[in-house]
């Protein structure tokens, strides 16, 4: 699974990135969206934090110091953002539809890691997917895939 995530994020950025974090680094936008999804239900569980950290660390093969710097940059960017557009507009301009759909799938994996899905998490991912140009059909498909991976039984379509 992590190889798929690594390949996906590498394809989003077009190249492997050095560990230093610089302004405009597309990894920051990805981390910021992950944080926004993680915090959508009003609290970020340790299991969600560990999921985000492990996905980012594994994908970018970062050491702990570089991971901490990237997470901090993503947190700063997320706290300064007034909406999702700041992050999604750049992703939409530079990445293929398939890559954007895969990103939505990754965001659903963050939602389901704690075994629960809230209405606010649904709303945040719906909004991000909409801004990324990901169809409702693809968003729901990725949600169902993430739920199946987490052994969550889906009961309603949102």
UniProtKB/TrEMBL annotation:
InterPro entries linked: DjlA_N, TerB-like
Species this chain originates from: Ferranicluibacter rubi
Domain Co-chaperone DjlA N-terminal: 27-143
Pfam family, one: TerB
Protein's UniProt name: Co-chaperone DjlA N-terminal domain-containing protein
TM region(s), chain numbering: none
